[in-house]
């Protein structure tokens, strides 16, 4: 990759292509973010290099960036994906400005694209389905884990990273401090990056017994683990599907719909959106 000169200069070698600088920017972030975040950067960076890689950094214009972002919208990409691409472009060019290699960041000057949400609202279980699930789910760690997803609004990644100490002795609250993430194909536990995601969730009375079951039956350092090795989201998803597939009158919605269901039920009971967002860690 390209090496930054000792003396900052605006005279950039003609061979400084976007792909070279993007690689340097990527490596410069290795120790600045969590391992899972760093690994996740690869997917966004690959998209940007495919479009701008062969262009010299000084020749990339705001209009080209705007056209690229618009093409992502036209191709039906998610808002999250488009936002990640724009944010990474800004960071890549910010470093060039910081090193006085370019005078202005073209990504800042690019027009913000208007993203129109076309997909339907996330699927949720009905109140009747939730009642059936609470009644029919198995009396084991997976069954009670699913009850906690529905009654506490945790993400699967947060559920898998729970320790017995995160659950209060009476089962009335759960502290969310960390989450399972995938790094190099392996499931690891990392602290939550955003402070608003750190929270203490009040567990509804109907779920107290489930919370206590998980606390009591932890098989190691974490509630869901084997010899202190945490399970992956994919493994839990397999268990989840097996647990609900034979329950009559319940649709086989994926695990993340449990959190959407939790939010929808709170909203139906008149809980303020700001409070719901806080409980979800948004």
Q: What does it look like?
A:
A hairpin with a 2-residue loop joins strand 5 and strand 6. The strands form three sheets. A two-stranded antiparallel ribbon has the order 1-4. It has twelve helices and six strands. It has helices spanning 18-28, 35-52, 62-74, 79-98, 106-109, 127-136, 141-152, 156-160, 208-216, 233-244, 257-268, 273-280; strands at residues 173-176, 178-183, 186-191, 199-202, 225-226, 229-230. It has 282 residues and is mainly alpha-helical. Helix 7 packs across helix 9, helix 7 (141-152) crosses helix 11 (257-268) and helix 11 (257-268) runs antiparallel to helix 12 (273-280). The two termini are 37 Å apart. It is elongated, with a radius of gyration of 23 Å.
Gyration radius, to the nearest Å? Answer: 23 Å
Helix/strand-derived category reads mainly alpha
Mean pLDDT: 87
Strand order of the largest sheet: 1-4
Residue share in helix: 40-55%
Q: Describe the sheet with the most strands.
A: 2 strands, antiparallel
Identify the quaternary structure here.
single chain
Terminal CA distance reads 37 Å
List the total number of helices. 12
Count of extended strands: 6
Order of helices and strands: HHHHHHHHEEEEHEEHHH
- Spans with pLDDT under 50 lasting ≥5 residues? 1-12
3D shape: elongated
Q: Which band does the percent of strand residues land in?
A: 5-15%
């Amino acid at each position: 990759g390209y090496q930054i000169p000792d003396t900052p200069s605006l005279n950039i070698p003609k061979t400084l292509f976007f792909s070279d600088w993007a690689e340097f920017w990527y490596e410069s972030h290795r120790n600045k973010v969590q391992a899972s975040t760093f690994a996740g950067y690869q997917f966004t960076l690959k998209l940007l290099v495919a479009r701008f890689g062969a262009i010299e950094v000084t020749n990339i214009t705001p209009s080209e960036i705007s056209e690229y972002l618009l093409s992502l919208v036209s191709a039906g990409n998610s808002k999250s994906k488009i936002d990640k691409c724009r944010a990474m472009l800004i960071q890549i060019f910010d470093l060039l400005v910081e090193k006085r290699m370019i005078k202005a960041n073209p990504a800042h000057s690019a027009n913000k694209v208007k993203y129109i949400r076309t997909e339907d609202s996330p699927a949720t279980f009905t109140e009747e389905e939730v009642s059936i699930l609470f009644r029919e789910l198995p009396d084991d760690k997976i069954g009670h884990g699913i009850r906690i997803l529905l009654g506490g609004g945790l993400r699967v990644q947060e559920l898998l990273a729970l320790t017995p100490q995160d659950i209060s002795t009476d089962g009335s609250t759960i502290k969310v401090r960390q989450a399972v993430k995938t790094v190099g194909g392996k499931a690891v536990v990392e602290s939550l990056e955003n402070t608003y995601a750190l929270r203490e969730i009040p567990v509804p009375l109907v779920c107290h017994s489930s919370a206590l079951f998980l606390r009591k039956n932890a098989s190691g350092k974490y509630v869901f683990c084997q010899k202190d090795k945490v399970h992956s989201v994919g493994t839990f998803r397999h268990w989840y599907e097996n647990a609900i597939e034979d329950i009559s009158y319940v649709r086989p919605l994926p695990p993340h719909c449990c959190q959407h269901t939790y939010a929808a039920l709170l909203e139906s009971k008149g809980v303020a959106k700001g409070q719901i967002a806080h409980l979800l860690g948004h």
